Amino acid sequence: MMQIAPSMLASDFSRLGEETRRMAQSGADMIHLDVMDGNFVPNITFGAPVIQAIRPCTDVFFDVHLMIREPLRYLADFARAGADGITFHVESEGDPEEIIEKIHAAGCRAAASLKPATPAERLYPYLKSLDMVLVMTVEPGFGGQSFQAPMLEKVKLLKEQARRQGKELLVQIDGGVNLDTIGQAALAGVDVCVAGTGVFKAPDAAQAIRALKEKAAAAR
Ligand code: DX5
Ligand code: ZN
């Protein structure tokens, strides 16, 4: 079954706690938290203190997506704030092997992400130690952009490469996921879809998450 991770970037920030609870009650498999530093991407969102503040709202998996230039500097802060999984970008600074090791040492699941221009091969050396990979289906930085379907080729390549290494790798996509695009994602083998606007702009989040899962199941 396709997992859905609502992106809190599309929520009402003035009611972040309630919004987190609402997503948990609506059947979210993960809560996706987009951290942007205004440097790695041209936008600033929130950091570890905000994540810590909403941590008591739910037990649902906190999936922290770091779009920051120096992940090594802040990993421990995000783990302490209550991240269950931490995703970093291979295009950011620092040795990926060391970053993965530090994420694991902090007790979190480790994922690495690719911007649209970065080829799947960049992640091959790290598949053994990663728990998940994130293939961006939009340019990171903003919600509400349109889905880049050619990115699904990378999903297939990464799945195949992991299988060759004897591993069932979780693959997540992020950006532009909605009822029109989730079918293609399911066909390509995606396991987890992040959805911001697709869930938050719907009148009923629970119904939106259910519909996304049903669309994905029908496509496989
Ligand atoms: C983009 C973020 C996404 C974004 C997705 O940089 O990583 O998580 O919030 O938003 P939608 O689903 O609206 O494209
Ligand atoms: Zn994200």
The rough form would be described as: globular
Amount of beta strand:
15-25%
What's the rounded overall pLDDT mean? 98
Helical/strand content category: alpha/beta
Strand order of the largest sheet: 1-8-7-6-5-4-3-2
Largest pleated sheet? 8 strands, parallel
* Low-confidence runs: none
Ligands present: D-xylitol-5-phosphate, zinc ion
Please provide a written account of the structure.
This protein is of the alpha/beta class and 220 residues long. Helices cover 35% and strands 20% of the residues. It contains eight helices and eight strands. It has an eight-stranded parallel beta sheet with strand order 1-8-7-6-5-4-3-2. The chain is globular and about 45 Å long. The model has no long low-confidence stretch (mean pLDDT 98). Bound molecules: D-xylitol-5-phosphate and zinc ion. Zinc ion (ZN) binds next to β2.
